[in-house]
Amino acid sequence: MSKWNKKCEDIVNMQINVEYWASYQYHLIWSYFDRDSVGLKNIAEYYKKASIEEREHAHKLMEYQNMRGGTVKLTTIADVDLNFLNQPDCKKMMDVLSSFIKALNMEQIVYESLLQVHAVGDECNDPQFCDFIESEYLEEQVTAINEIKKYIEQLKRIGDDGAGVWQFDRLFENSE
């Protein structure tokens, strides 16, 4: 196997930290919907699964980094909060819709970051690395973004109808 390029090593470490950031933020959103004052357990579980998935992505990148001979470097996770629920433009929206808009934004950030990772692999002429990113991450990101966009549109149709939100929560019941 060819020598692992330092640019590739650095960009993989950046992506590991992006994945952990998303996992951490999703876990915080889970905690909000799991509150007894919110009580949307299936939406909470959706976000818990999303958190675990992002953490698994980070782990897979760490394994890849080790396989290629690089060194994993973790950084501090910043900018994780529930402030998006308190923004003036979000106050009018229900918390569920606000959370899915936040999730869409996060998934788009992760996707753009993965495109940067792929570009570095291409620049360093490492087709195996590019294939790894394509096969393990990019298609899944596109699918996730599409799914969240559909949830947002469904929630816009529901509006702030409590029964509709309750029914939307049931959509996630028993989902794998």
Q: Can you tell me about this structure?
A:
The protein has a single domain, classed as Ferritin (Up-down Bundle). Helix 1 runs antiparallel to helix 2, helix 1 (6-33) packs antiparallel against helix 4 and helix 4 packs antiparallel against helix 5 (127-158). It has helices at residues 6-33, 41-67, 88-91, 95-123, 127-158, 162-171. It is mainly alpha-helical and 176 residues long. The longest helix is centred in the last third of the chain and has 32 residues, at 127-158. 74% of the residues lie in helices and 0% in strands.
Index terms:
single chain, 176 residues, mainly alpha, Ferritin, 6 helices, 0% strand
Q: What is the typical, i.e. mean, pLDDT?
A: 92
Strands, count: 0
End-to-end CA span: 37 Å
Shape: elongated
Low-confidence stretches: none
* Succession of helices and strands: HHHHHH
CATH class: Mainly Alpha
Q: How does the helix and strand content classify structurally? A: mainly alpha
Kindly report the CATH topology: Ferritin
The portion of residues assigned to helices is over 70%
Output the radius of gyration: 18 Å
What is the number of helices?
6
State the domain count. 1
CATH architecture: Up-down Bundle
Strand content: under 5%
- Largest sheet geometry: none
Determine the CATH superfamily.
Answer: Ferritin, core subunit, four-helix bundle
Task: Compile the SSE list and pairings.
Layout: H1 6-33, H2 41-67, H3 88-91, H4 95-123, H5 127-158, H6 162-171
Helix pairs in contact: 1-2, 1-4, 4-5
